[in-house]
Amino acid sequence: MDLFDSNAAERANLPRNMIENSMFEEEPDVVDLAKDSSTFPAFPTLDPDEVAYEPRSSRLLVRGLGENDMDDDEEDCESSARLLGMSFMNRSSSNRSNSSPYARQSSPRSCSRPSTRTMVACLLVLVLVASLIMVMYLLPGCTFTKAGCPKPNKTAPFEPVYPNSTSGEPFPWAELRLPRSIRPLGYDLTLTPDLDNMTFTGRTVIEMSVLHSTKRIVLHAANINIIKATFKLGDGKADDVHVLEYKPHQQIAIKMKEELKAGQQCVLTFDYSANLSHTYDGFYNSSYTDKDGNKRVLAATQFEPLSARKAFPCFDEPSFKATFLIKINRKPNYMTLSNMPQAKTTTLSNSLMQDEFEKTNVNMSTYLVAFIVANFTRVNSTDPGTMVSVYSVPEKKEQTRFALDTASKLLTFYNKFFEIEYPLKKLDLVAIPDFLAGAMENWGLITFRETTLLLGNNSSSLEKQVVASVIAHELAHQWFGNLVTMSWWNDLWLNEGFATYMEFMSLQEILPSLDTGNLFLSVRFRAMDKDALNSSHPVSTEVNTPEQVEEMFDSVSYEKGASILLMLNASLPKEFKKGIIQYLKTFRGLNTETEDLWNSLTQVSTTRQNISEMMNSWTSQKGFPLVNVSRKGDQVTLSQEPFLLTSDNTTKKSRLWTIPITYVNDSCSLAPECSQMFTLKSKSENLKVPESVKWLKLNYKSTGFYVVDYGNDGWNALIEALSTNISVLTPEDRASLIHNIFALSRLGRVPFEQVLHLLNSMSNETETSPVREALLQLNSVHGLLDKRQESGLVARMKTYILTHFGSLMNNQSWGEEQSLSKQELRSALVSTACTLNEESCVANATSLFKQYSDSNFTITIPGDLQQAVFTVAAQSDDGWKSLLNLYTTTTYDAEKRKMLKGLASTQDPRRIAWILKAGLNGDIIQTQELPLIINTVCNGFAGYLFAWDFIQVNWDRLIDKFPLGSFAIQSIIKSTTSQFSTQAHLDQVQAFFSSLKQRGSQMRSVREALETIRLNKRWMESNLQAFGKWL
Ligand SMILES: [Zn+2]
C-alpha cells in the first residue's frame, strides 16, 4: 500500500504503544526451526491446535485473555516447558514450530553459588527432571500441547475461560490470532452487489485441510449477516451448522460434534448479506459526478490489512494463503474487475449477468483479493506475456497514457531485475474516484487514487514523479508482498520497506529524468526525525490488536525500512541484488520473517559476512545511533550512542548498532571512490587518518541511517571549509550537515548559534536538497514561534530567511522550467516566500492568478508554481470564491488537490470552519481529503486552534471514517498537535486523548504527539533567548 500523503515531506508519520522494545535487546533469538523449511513455513507439521501463532521476533507469551484461556492440559505443558527451560526447547527444536508460545520463556533459575548439599539436591532434582523429560519427550506425538502431551493428573482442574459469543454460548477461542489447526486451500466466492440499495449478498465456499486434530473451526468475519452455513467432510453430504460469533475479535466459529482428524479435507459454505461499507475499507461504495452532472456509483474493495473479513468469511491473516475463484453478479450496465482475467460471462435468470474470473494460479493472502463493479473505460498494451491495462472513469480516459507507459516499462524492468517473471496473465491499474490510501497492490488489480495514477497533458514533471513513484512502489509489491509475503504484520517492513526502496531504485534506472534522488534523501531525514522519538518502535515489532496492525503503516515500516536497505546496498553492493533474488526465489509463494531475508543475503555473501548480525541491530531495536567524532592528530575516535531526544529508564540501557560508516576528507571528497569504509561495532573505536587531513565528513551522501556530531573543532573545520568553497562536499552531504546540525540542536548538543554559523557558511548555496532542507528546518522553527505568538521573534525569523535566501528567491523565473530538480527548488523557495508574505512573491503570484482567471482558466500555470499561486489567490475574497468554483468543476485531480490546499490555507476563520466541515461531510469535498485539509489548516496561524477544536468535537465521526491507528488518523493527530509547545497545550492534549479510553488513548501516535509537544516546549524554552540574540 502506498500512503500517499506520506510521500515526500508530507509523509504521515507516527508511532504507538505496546510491549516495550528494549526487551528485544537482551536476548538473541532462540534457535529458529521453521525458517529453513522451504515447504510451508507458516504451517509447521506439529503446530498444535491450541497455540496461536507468535512471531519469532517477540519474546513474550501474549494471549488474548492471559493464562486463563489455556486448557488444563496446556497449562500443564507450559509448566513442563518452564521446567525444561530454553536449552531443552532448542534441543527439541526439530519438532517444534516457531509458533510455540513457550519458545521464549526464560531459563529456570539455577542454583547459584551452591553449597555441596544444595548441589547434590539440585543434581537429584535435575536427574529427576531429566528422566521425566525423557519419558515425556519420547512419548509419540508429545509436543507439550493439549494435543500432544500425556494426560496429567487432574488434582486441580483448570477451567479454560472462553468469551461469550453473540448468542450467549461460549465461543471456543480466546486469541486474536486464529488457531493453526485448519488451513484453507481454496475459496469460491460469488458476490451480488446491489448498487441501488448499497447492499450485497454473497456465497463463500471454503475448501480446507485439517492440519491437527480439532473440534472447532475458527475464522474471521465482520459486519456480515450469515444466513446459512453448511459443513461437508470429505465426500460426505453437506449439513447445516450453527455459527458462533465473537464480535470483539471479528471471529466466527463452528464447533464440531466429531473431532476432525489431521489430513482430512472439508468444505464450509456460507450464505450471507451485508451493507456495502460507507468507509474506505472492505467492500465499499464510492461515487462521482460524471460530465453531465449525474451521480454515478461504483463499488470497490480495500482489504489491507484486516478488511477482507468484511466482504467474505475467511482466514484473514497473511500466512493463510489460498486460491480464489471469484464470480460477480451485476446489472448489464456495469462491468467488473478482479485479480484474474475474466473467464466467462453468463446471463442469469434474474436479468443479472454473472462474470466469472479465472481461478488464481497462485496462492494468495486474503488482503490481496480485490474486485470492482463500475463503469470504467480502459487503455491497454500487451507487454511480452502480460496484458497491462489502465482503467478510469470515462471522462478521464485521456489521462491514463503516462501510467500505462510507465507501468509497462516498470514491469519489464522488474521481470529482469528480480529474474522472476510476473506470474499473472494481466495487470490492471485502476483509478478509483474515492480512495483513501495512495494505492493498493492487490495482485493483478492495483487500485489507485485518481491523483496518483492520472496525468493531464500539461502535467509537470513533479506530478509525473508522484505517479511514477506510486506505480513503481505498487509494482514492486507484486514480488515483495504478493509473491513473498510477511508471515504476520510485525514484519510489514518486508513489504513496505522494500517497495519503498525499489520505488526509488527502479526510477533512478528507468526514468532518471524524474530525479527521485532528492526525494529519497528527504524521506530518509524525515524517517530519522520520527525514529529519534522515544515513542518510535523497532522496524520489526510485535503487534496483536487491529489498532496495532493499522499503526504499522507508518514511516518506520516504509521509510526507515527503505533507508536501512539503501545502507545495506551501499555497503554490500555485490551481495545485495544477488541476495534479494535468492530470497525471492527461495520463498516464492510462501511467507517469511525478517531473519529469512538476512539469511538469504548471508548465503550469497562472498566474504561470508554475517549480515544477520549487522542488520538485526537495525531492525530489532528502535532508534538509530549518534556517531561522535573526536580527533587528536592522526587518531580519530568514533563512538556511538543512541540518538534519543527523550531518555527515560527504558532507554538508558546501552544499545549498539553495527554501523557501516563511510567517510571522506579534504583531499578527496566528491567522487564515490573517495568514500572509505569503517565498520563500527563496539561503543568506541579508533581510526587513523593522515595528520595532514583538515576535516572529515562522515556518512558519504547520507546513505547511512545515523547522525554525526563532529565536536566543536570538527564542526568549525567543516564550516570554515564550506565558507571558502561550498563545492568541497556533494549537495547530499551539505544537506545532511544541515539536517544533522538541527537534530543536534534539538538534542541540546550543539548551540543554535552553531546552526546559524553553518547556514551562514552556505550562503551561496543554490542546490535543491540543501536549500530545501534548510528551508524546511527554518520554516519549522518559524511555525513553532508563530504558534507561540512570539511575534517579535517571528518577524526576526522571517527577516533571517528572506535575507538568507532572498536573492535566490528573486532569481527564480515564473515561466515554464524544464529541469525537475530546478522545479523542486523553485517550488520550495516560492512557497516559503509567499507564505512569509514577501512582497514580490505575492505580487507575482497574484498577477499570475489574474492572468489565469482572465483567460477563463485556459492558460497554464507551471505545475511547480500552482500551489503557491492558488495559496496566494485564496487569501482574497474574490480569489477564494473563484478557486472554490474552479475546484468544483475541474476534472484534473492533481490540480484539484492543489486548489483544495489553497482553499484550506485561507486565514478567514469562517472559511476555515466551513472547509473542515465540508471535508468531514464529504459532499462538495471528498472525505478522503480531510487529512490534507486539516494539515493545511494547521500550518496557518488562523486555523491551528480551530483544527484542534474540530478534531475533539468530531472525534467519533473521524474514527468512524478512518480506523483507529490508520495512517489517516496518525496524520490528523500529528497535524493538529505537532506545533504546540506550551504546558497548557500539553495538558489539553493529554486530557483529551486520555478521556478517549478505548476510542484511541492507546495509540502510538498519541504518545508521539505528547512527546513532541514536550520536546518543542523544551527546545523553545531553552532557545528563546538565543533566537533573540542570534537572529
Ligand atoms: Zn506499499
Automatic annotation (TrEMBL):
GO terms for cellular component: cytoplasm; endomembrane system; extracellular space; plasma membrane. CDD domains: M1_APN-Q_like. It is found in: Endomembrane system. Its cofactor is Zn(2+). GO terms for biological process: peptide catabolic process; proteolysis; regulation of blood pressure. It is a single-pass type II membrane protein. Its main location: membrane. The record marks 558 as: Transition state stabilizer. Binds 1 zinc ion per subunit. Gene3D superfamilies: 1.25.50.20, 2.60.40.1910, Neutral Protease Domain 2 (1.10.390.10), tricorn interacting facor f3 domain (2.60.40.1730). Residues 184-368 form the Aminopeptidase N-like N-terminal domain. The active site is at residue 474. Keywords: Aminopeptidase, Glycoprotein, Hydrolase, Membrane, Metal-binding, Metalloprotease, Protease, Signal-anchor, Transmembrane, Transmembrane helix, Zinc. Residues 90-114 are annotated as: Disordered. The chain crosses the membrane at residues 119-139. Coiled coil: none annotated. Belongs to the peptidase M1 family. This is Leucyl/cystinyl aminopeptidase. It comes from Fundulus heteroclitus (Killifish).
